[in-house]
Amino acid sequence: MFQHYKQLQEDFISDDHQRNISITALSVQIFTVPTLARQLIEEGSVIKVIIDTVMDMMMEHLDSNNRFQFQGHNPDKFFRVQVIFHDLRYILISKPSVWTETLRVKFLEGLRIFLHFLCCMQGMEEVKRQLGQHVEVEPEWEAGLTLQMQLRHILAMFQDWCSSDERVLLLAFQECHRALMSCTNQPFRSEPTDSYMCKQILHARPYKVSEEPVSIHLPISRLLAGLYVLLCQTGAIQYLPDFVDPVQLNFTELAEQPLRCVVLAAQVCADMWRRNGLSLVSQVYYYQDVKCRDEMFDKDVIMLQIAASKMDPNHFLMLVLLRFELFDIFNDNCSSKDQEVLKQWNRLTEEMLYLIIIIAGERYVPGISHVTKEDVTMREVIHLLCIEPMAHSSLVKSLPENESHETGLETVISKVAIFKKPGVSGHGLYELKKECLEEFNPFFYHYSRPQHSKAEEAQKKRRTQEGSDKALRPPVPPPFCPAFSNIVYLLCCDIFIHILKRIFQKAAEDRSNRWTEPMIQRALHLVGQALLEEKTQLEGSSTEEVTFDFSLKAQKTGSRHGKSLFHFLTKMKSLPSLKAQNDMIMWNLQMFEVVKCLREKSGPVASFSVDHSKLEESVQDKEKAERKRKAEAAKAHRQKIMAQMSAMQKNFIESNKMLYDNVPESSSQSDTAASVDSFRMDVDESRVAVGPQQGVCSTDWEAQICILCQEEQEVQAQAPAMVLTACVQRSTVLTQNRGKTLSPKVGTYPLFMPPDLAVGTHTGSCGHVMHATCWQKYFEAVQNTTRNRLHADLIIDLENGEYMCPLCKSLCNTVIPLIPVEPSKLNYESAEIVGQHLTLERWIQIMSCRIRGLRGTWETDNNSEKAADEATALFDESQAEFRSILSFGVQESPKFSRSITEMLGVCANTVHRVGLQTAPNDLCPYVPVMSWNTCAYTIQATDNMLQEEGKPLFGSLQNRQLSGLKALVQFSAAQRLKSSQAVIQKHFADMLAVLVPVPNVENTPSILEVDFFHLLVGLDLSIPALYQEAAVDLQPSAVSSAYNHLYLLHLLTMAHMLQVLLASHDCAVIGGRGEGDEAQAAAELFSIVSQHTDRLRAGVTGFCVEGVKRGVLPFLRCAALFFNCLTGVPPPEELSGTTESPESQLHLLCSYLSLPSNLFQLFQDHRDVVTTLIKRWCENTAISKALKGEMQIIRYPHKRNRLIDLPEDYSVLLNQASHFKCPNSSDDERKHPTLCLLCGVMLCAQSPCCQEQLNGEEVGACTAHAAICGAGVGMFLRVRECEIVLMASKTRGSPYPAPYLDDYGETDPQLGRGNPLHLCPERYRKLLHMWQQHCVLEEIARSLEVLNVMFPFEWQML
Q1: What is the pLDDT of residues 600-621, one digit of tens each?
Q2: 146 FRET partner, CA 20 to 30 A, in 281, 390, 670, 947?
Q3: What mean pLDDT, rounded, does the chain reach?
Q4: How far apart are CA 149 and CA 1086, in angstroms?
Q5: In 179-227, beta strands by DSSP E
Q6: Where does the record place the region Disordered (predicted)?
């Protein structure tokens, strides 16, 4: 392969096959073997062969100057050529531990060829500042930077190889220097001139970056800088004169190119190159970005540090001023009134000061100072965490990687940071340890501009919270190595003093257009750096040995005329415009005193600590005094306002005295209110919501404020409608038979909800109120604006009436009108008298007679006399009259305004359309039924949610949930007024027939085939329709309603208890009879039931009694919620506590619902009626089938549905997915195994092999499964992508983070990082709550709203 390497690569580049199926991909298996790589270098010159191959392939891109020019290149071919660089990395991946002479020769030969390649990159793609007119065509820049990124690790590996052998390192430097000198790019176009400043003369060639061509690509200059640092680090620098003539090492020339590059970046930052377009901005961005900076910006800084250490510090700074084009400005030879030019000068001055800060302060490079790579990484991490606490992945992305894609983070992170575990959302975060904060440098050279601002703000905020001053002091840097020790004299040379003095003078004289606050901030930082350096040297040596004299020059230079640096610094202390920098100025002045004490040898350490503490105390005292003064002023202001208000009140009372003297009406009202309150206290002690002892309604709707027009309105029957936003959706959250579907064409649904609650209709609300007219205008506006939006149908379905709540952006598809709660006007004396005559038996007679009388109005055929005869035999109906139902009290039905009636229809039609998946039909008889069903199902879902979360039944719901539930119950109750009374009466008769014999009603389901809470809601809300007369709209009075609710609840509770008992027929009956009233009553019930069934025997145990009580408890909890919302009677306070045991909770619920605490007592109290009813219930053929095992029986209490149990370790899921085989495909094609979190089925997603027909349309396996398993709602885990997919319909879905986290508290979508993942129970519980609370649809809509997808994903094919 190696002998034909070049031919193979040429074939690969000219071919269109992918790399993974090419023979060239085998190179990784050969070149990464250390012994083979060594042999290929020594015997085959493999480095030379690889680089020659690259050069041959890229020869077409060379221009006349023998430099690369990629304008108009072929991207595909260029990408294939870059693949060859991988082979070079493989060869260099193992650094030799032992060098042979042959290896040295061959390696240096390869390096020489590589340097020739780099010569073609040195100075390529030069740019020249565009003046007057914007560049017409953006030049090509991506190819050059891509090439630089490919070479980044190769350059580092070449340097690493060189560092392992001293002779190789010296020869490599020699070759690199020779290659640099041979480059002809960017020659000077003029002769050297002399420049004068502060009695200093610089002899240099003039060059202006803003006028001459300049390139950002300088690989040889940067390689030379890296090799020089390695020479210093290994100590081989002492032998350098033997290899390179010192005369030829002109460091002014060596620093020229990097300095131009840094100046270019500064001028781009100052908006001087904006007419050159985005291409140059992008290059400068990558020049300083983490992907490229270690071999670009960082190496340029090192080269400038090398030059600064070898040149005269004054000459170096003069050269910097010249290249920044600021020399004449600081020499007072240039002035301008153009604000744009002044702004550019100020910005360039800021960048020039920043460069001096970097050159003098950035010493964390092995070889420049005595630090290790671990120290460098540690400092990077510290400064990243000074911005804000960060996740592990964010830290990794922000750190440079080595050739092995490692950042070194793991070895240092525990030393500098504390890990904070994540909550239910977000990531685990690393927070910086307090002891590391002192290393913070606000001008850290790897900060971008946004990072610098955020870090500065965060640290100032922290210091304020700690009560410290806001001075962000420069940290004490490590000392330079001897070869770089002269750099520090930049901070005390004459030019440096002159620069700072001129800047401070402009600020002190307040020439606002000549200085900026960032400029002053950088200058103060430099003063601090210089003072810290002087202090360090004075502490380490005697005064006579220290030649660093910044403080002396700062105080003496210009002091005769009152223009010393120190004088201007002192003057700046009192400037209002520099108040933000006052703490830093004070700290610098304090440091001057510390250095002065050190020079005078008058107890430097003690002096510093005392003075420093005094300074901080004085600052804190001032801050405290200022806060105290402001607090006292605010207090005085408040007292003054209160006094004025009090005086105004007294004046008003005096001038309107008659109003306060003549208030008989209001006083009588208050007396009445007091009497009502006292009466309410007496009645409400028991807090009863049902029956003749029903308490008083405590709350009605308060005055509501429309979220759109902000107007307040009372909720009244005749007022314009106020509506709640709401979302109606089908649900399987409560199903006991997952996968079962319901349809009006099959069975008795929707009038009778099956006990397995297979599919329900849930109505939720975010609780925001609007006027109906405001909502209609908003909805029309949404429709008009959204139709023009790209892919709007993915977010909201306009055809089905969807919209986003104007306030919280929750997804809604209807509104619920607010219906005022009818005040309870129960006369307790009348109720007691009625109760003596209206027994359960009499009530059943009256109902049966009323239904028989009304039968002619809604049914013509009279086929069924059997049921009528049965009813007559049972209850002696002859004594009952048709209108006897009215004798116990009636009242006029409430009249609603036109808008409320209209909104009742809007909501009912949406519930009917969504619940039955049918077209809108106002005349459908099931419209009111579906309203009752959604009311019942929503209450059951709410109770299920509260039990799952371990919360009390009352007091734990949020206001929005409570108001939504209350509005839904009142809306459902008002449906009878909107619909045909004959239809409501027919529905009532059909439902009542489940409990008692009703004339002309056949084929009613057995008590094992209905959900009794749905039946309770339907019967309670439809019974007022029986009071309807032909000429008058009537409804039962408060007393009649109380007894109707009571007897319906008693009948349904007894039937449900029997349902629970029969459903648990396989319970073993052990032992004899129990003791106590409850056990005796239960035993009697068992005895009666056993007479009519074959499977139940006489006798009862505590286990069976407790089982019945546990089974009936959810029904009672839902009934309590329902009657609380219907009547408004507050529940017992104990039901709001979480500590109530099920037994005590049952007692409180029975009390609230007017049931005996011993539920079996109901059968004793109504023995005459119930005995006959039990016989009728048990003789149903469905009961015998169920007891024989021929029909499925639903157990009670219902099991609470949860998401499937997931393994703790994600690798278990991956293992399951690897063994997954598509049932419809036999090929080996990679599948997308997807796990349904509702039922645990593994599906083959996004594959045509498993597509199915759904309503005549081809859909994917997940969409088809969701339609059956979750009524359209799906929650799937894509195993190989480690991603949750939420689905709500055929066209809508969204990704969601998986509940698996790595050790750093982060998710790993697409398994990109590959860290071990473990299940986070809290996040999985959040997913469960999202599903149980029916928020999946809302989550999808919100995520799609944020994403604003350009190319939508076809969710129906998932």
Answers
A1: 874 444 334 434 444 444 545 5
A2: 390
A3: 85
A4: 84
A5: 193-197, 200-204
A6: 452-474
Count CB neighbours of 48 within 10 A: 17
Residue 1197, preceding peptide bond in cis (omega within 30° of 0)? yes
Q: Helix 582-600 vs helix 604-655: angle between axes, to the nearest 10 degrees?
A: 150
Surface-to-core class of residue 435, CB atoms within 10 Å of its CB (0-12 exposed, 13-18 middle, 19+ buried)? exposed
For residues 1100 and 1087, what is the distance between their CA atoms, to the nearest angstrom? 9
pLDDT of residue 658: 45
Torsion of CA 1186, 1188, 1189, 1194, to 10 degrees: 30
Q: Which residue has the tokens 């041979």?
A: 182
Token representation of residue 85: 């660089």
Q: Say yes or no to pLDDT of 743 above 90.
A: no
**974: which DSSP letter?**
T
Copy the structure tokens of residue 229.
Answer: 């640092």
> What would the mean pLDDT of 126-145 be, rounded to a whole number?
90
Tell me the C-alpha distance between 1249 and 1221, whole Å: 12
Residue 675 confidence (pLDDT) above 60:
no
Q: Which helix (H) or strand (E) holds 764?
A: strand 760-764
Q: How confident is the model at residue 860 (pLDDT cuts 50, 70, 90)?
A: very low
CA dist., res. 701 & res. 680, Å (int): 19
Which CA distances in Å does 890 have to 463, 679, 853, 883, 1036? 74, 25, 18, 11, 4
- pLDDT tens-digit profile of 204-230? 889 999 999 999 999 999 999 999 999
Is 263:324 a contact under the CB 8 Å cutoff?
yes
> Under a CB-based contact definition with an 8 Å cutoff, are residues 144 and 391 in contact?
no
Q: For residues 796 and 1125, what is the distance between their CA atoms, to the nearest angstrom?
A: 31
- Whole-angstrom distance, CA of residue 989 vs CA of residue 972: 18
Instruction: State the Cα–Cα distance between residues 1202 and 613, nearest whole angstrom.
Output: 61
| pLDDT tens digit sequence for 415-451 | 999 999 887 878 889 999 999 999 999 999 999 999 9
pLDDT of 893 > 70? The answer is: yes
The secondary structure of 390-456, three-state, reads: ECHHHHHHHCCCCCCCCCCHHHHHHHHEEEECCCCCCCCEEEECHHHHHHCCCCCCCCCHHHHHHHH
Report how far apart, in Å, the C-alpha atoms of 499 and of each of 209, 353, 355, 492 are: 21, 9, 13, 11
Secondary structure of the chain: what % helix, strand, coil (to 5)?
Answer: 60, 5, 35
Cβ contacts of residue 604 below 8 Å, gap of 6+? 538, 539, 594, 597, 598
pTM for this structure? 0.80
Check if the beta carbon of residue 818 is closer than 8 Å to that of residue 724: yes
For 386, residues 6+ apart whose C-beta sits below 8 A from its C-beta are 432, 437, 440, 455, 458, 459
Q: What is the mean pLDDT of residues 691-711?
A: 84
Per-residue pLDDT reduced to its tens digit, 79-109? 889 899 999 999 999 899 899 999 999 999 9
How many angstroms separate the CA atoms of 895 and 872, rounded?
A: 38
Residue 1276 tokens, joined = 């799937």
- DSSP-derived letter for residue 1006 is P
Lowest-confidence segment of 189-198, 720-729, 1222-1231 by average pLDDT: 1222-1231
Other C-beta atoms lying within 10 Å of the C-beta of residue 873: 11
Which amino acid belongs to residue 601? K
Determine how many CB atoms are found less than 10 A away from the CB of residue 89: 17
Q: Report which of 387, 401, 524 is spatially closest to residue 457, judged by C-alpha positions.
A: 387
- pLDDT score of 1085: 84
Q: Retrieve residue 1127's tokens.
A: 């009547």
d(CA 1250, CA 1230): 14
Classify strands 1274-1278 and 1232-1236 as parallel, antiparallel or unpaired. antiparallel
